[in-house]
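Q: What residues go here?
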């Protein structure tokens, strides 16, 4: 058909590995002369054969807000079918489109935060901006002609390649929304050059953005990309106040790592014992450290070889309890916390108890039922189990074989 011929041979766009699917599809629409994306989709749907129309209809109703794979729930198969047809019409391959899609991640971050998955990297869903709030870098658009996926995430606030703040508004007041802004370096509304309005980004923001883009930086941990997003997630949950933007302080925090964490843990213990109503040997781990383990257990990995936060926590606890004989060892912990420290399951913790490898702090009565949230184990016993026969300094991926 004529429309297919124009779409295939006039545009023949190439997808770029760092481009987002939304920007790619918008670029196709603009390249075919459509300023409104929904109109473009209606024209496309009416131009394909009737056997394909249902697949297009199930993929995208009227807007681009639900176009990506992570929105597909019961229609995942039809969404893939549509992407395959869309790839054929645009002269791309299905794998090129799938590479720039955001899918629902199979792993979760701490506190049961769901993730998005893209090209081997998991990012917390809460990092994703609303589609009409995505800022741009006009220098990137001028050089490449497309928009980058990193612009969709809150923590990436400046372009690390050009050293400028991402822009959301022109000086005329127009919002540079991706639906309205053309792929040029001029404002769609007043025509003013956006290149003349760029602002240099603070060094801390540039370092953070470069780190999230995969570059090695001096003061931030050299870990995998998923774990970098996990550290941002952990910092906001556990360290930063609710109204604090991570990019302004995470750099200074990790400059002092891990000593700054150790000082906080010591301070938490001193404060808890000072204000405690119960004797120190009757306090629980949560009485002192709150949700420390639950916010640190999945970033998104839980192995000590990957999770530098959990590794530092275990190092601190083992040095204080085993090496220095600190009364911290008398803290009572529950099965969930013990499972986090040993990187195992609560069922395996129960098996350790059943086999006599891990004993309770106080003898349980015959009729007493201990739940997974009952603080029945002594911290020092769990740490001794970890040190003697269950874990190592660099990795805690060893699984107990039950006797059953």
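A:
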């Amino acid at each position: 058909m004529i429309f297919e011929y124009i779409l295939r041979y006039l545009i023949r766009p190439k997808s770029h590995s760092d481009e987002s699917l939304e920007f790619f599809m918008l670029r196709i629409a603009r390249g075919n002369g459509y300023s409104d994306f929904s109109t473009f989709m209606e024209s496309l749907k009416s131009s394909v054969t009737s056997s394909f129309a249902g697949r297009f209809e199930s993929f995208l109703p009227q807007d681009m807000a639900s176009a990506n794979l992570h929105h597909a729930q019961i229609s995942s198969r039809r969404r893939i079918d549509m992407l395959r047809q869309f790839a054929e019409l645009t002269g791309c391959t299905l794998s090129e489109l799938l590479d720039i899609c955001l899918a629902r991640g199979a792993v979760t971050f701490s506190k049961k935060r769901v993730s998005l998955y893209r090209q081997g990297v998991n990012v917390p869903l809460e990092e994703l901006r609303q589609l009409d709030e995505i800022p741009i870098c006009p220098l990137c658009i001028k050089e490449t002609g497309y928009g980058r996926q990193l612009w969709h995430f809150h923590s990436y606030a400046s372009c690390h390649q050009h050293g400028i703040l991402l822009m959301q508004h022109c000086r005329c007041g127009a919002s540079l929304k991706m639906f309205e802004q053309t792929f040029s370096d001029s404002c769609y509304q007043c025509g003013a050059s956006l290149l003349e309005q760029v602002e240099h980004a603070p060094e801390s923001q540039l370092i953070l953005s470069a780190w999230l883009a995969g570059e090695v930086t001096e003061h931030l941990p050299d870990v995998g990309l998923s774990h970098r997003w996990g550290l941002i997630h952990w910092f906001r949950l556990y360290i930063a106040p609710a109204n604090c933007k991570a990019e302004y302080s995470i750099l200074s925090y990790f400059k002092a790592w891990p000593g700054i964490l150790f000082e906080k843990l010591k301070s938490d213990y001193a404060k808890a014992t000072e204000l405690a109503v119960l004797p120190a040997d009757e306090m629980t781990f949560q009485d002192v450290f709150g949700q420390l383990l639950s916010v640190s257990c999945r970033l998104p990995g839980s192995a000590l070889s990957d999770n530098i936060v959990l590794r530092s926590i275990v190092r601190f606890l083992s040095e204080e309890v085993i090496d220095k004989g600190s009364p911290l060892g008398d803290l009572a912990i529950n099965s969930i916390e013990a499972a986090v420290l040993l990187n195992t399951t609560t069922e395996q913790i129960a098996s350790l108890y059943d086999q006599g490898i891990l004993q309770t702090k106080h003898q349980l009565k015959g009729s007493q039922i201990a739940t997974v949230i009952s603080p029945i184990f002594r911290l020092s016993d769990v740490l001794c189990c970890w040190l003697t026969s269950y874990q190592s300094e660099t990795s805690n991926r060893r699984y107990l074989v039950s006797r059953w």
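A: Context that may help when evaluating the design: Residues 259-275 form the longest helix (17 residues). Confidence is low (pLDDT under 50) at residues 395-404.
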